[in-house]
Amino acid sequence: MLLLIGSFLLLLILGTPVAVSMIVASLSYLLVYGVAPDIITAQRMIAGVESFPLIAVPFFILVGNLMNIAGVTGRIYHFALSLVGWMKGGLAQVNIIGSVVFSGMSGTALADAAGIGTIEIKAMKDHGYPVEAAVGVTAASATLGPIFPPSLPFVIYGMMANASIGALFMAGILPGIVMAALMMLTVVFFAHRKGWGSDTPFELRRLAGASLEVLVVLCFPAAVYILILAGLSVNVAVLIALAALIALDWFFDFSAVMALMTPVLLIGGMTMGWFTPTEAAVAAVIWSLFLGLVRYRTMTFRALAKASFDTIETTASVLFIVTAASIFAWLLTVSQAAQLFSDFMFSLTDNWWTFLIIVNILLLIVGAFLDTIAAISILVPILMPVAARYGIDPVHLGVVITLNLMIGLLTPPVGMVLFVLSRISKLSVERTTLAILPWMIPLFAALLLITFVPQLTLWLPTQLGLIR
Length: 468
Fold this sequence. Notes:
By secondary structure, this protein is mainly α. It has one domain (2-463). It has 25 helices and no strands. The chain is globular, with a radius of gyration of 23 Å. The two termini are 36 Å apart.
């Protein structure tokens, strides 16, 4: 175990890519101890990516890219501006609301930061906000991406932990709302302390228009329910309601109704059994193509080709990490690392609260050094058996792990969101890090609530019958 983990950490310190470090450490262990023939090693690596849930990975990545090139991010921004731009610190509130909406499409923090974050930072700078404030609130709101469904980290975690991905998607909704509320309260505090005003005049017409768009979206499931009560089948009811909604959108030319419908369609489709969480990724791509090519007509075939190649590149890197992590995680099991860690934890405490405190500290440290996918692939096989002994639900643990690793994306030395925002804002990494620090407060407050109030995570999937 010392050879396996020690060589892995040494290679990381030397600056070797994470996936390469895991493969080299694994091969070193196999050569020294000969625990399995070469063919078994190859089979384990192939089995790591030969999984139905992983089909969702390229599609969720593609959705984020398509939404960005289709101009949906701009529509979401203007919708949020009409809804909350008149408040004190209006553009900071817009930043958070925009991320909440975009989270229901992208599934990743990087897509949020690089997509709608680019628009938001420029707008806040143009309205006189300090660039540090713009970067800080954008970084904090980007963490919502993988918490609200759909979520790429939840897909990877569900595969590694053998947990229901649908339950994980539903489990992220209430924690995501809590996170957004805490961030908005933080904006109110800074607005009063630093004298931030509103950024658009209060216009009842604009607010009513944005509120009407929300109402139209909320009426969609109500219309489906009424049509079902009238005797129509579920499929026919949904198609009629969707056709009516598209007709309304074309007639009134709403700003963001079709974009707001994305999470409604995905969650509703999974709840009604139209498609699995994995198939929901394909449905999201089809909807994105409809918006970009048909409804808004802002997507060119050249941009579509670029988005596809970007998706291939990102998918290859993600699956390379998963492949490397699969053999590394298997060897951790063979070397009894999970059992040793479990025994060590029980020698320290038999209280699940204390265990989760230790896990949070561990994950915050690991998240600062490892990519999210790699961290999930390595740590889940070790933490899952221990959490089961403490009686912690795997769905609850999945949300806790994901939020910790999202915070890790904002911290040096390997925080990818940190580097993306540094490049967008043209700030040094050091100044970007200092700008993000005050916004860690609402994130840590949300982390404490989600960690120690399991009902916040488990209530919705339990009510939907996804977990018992």
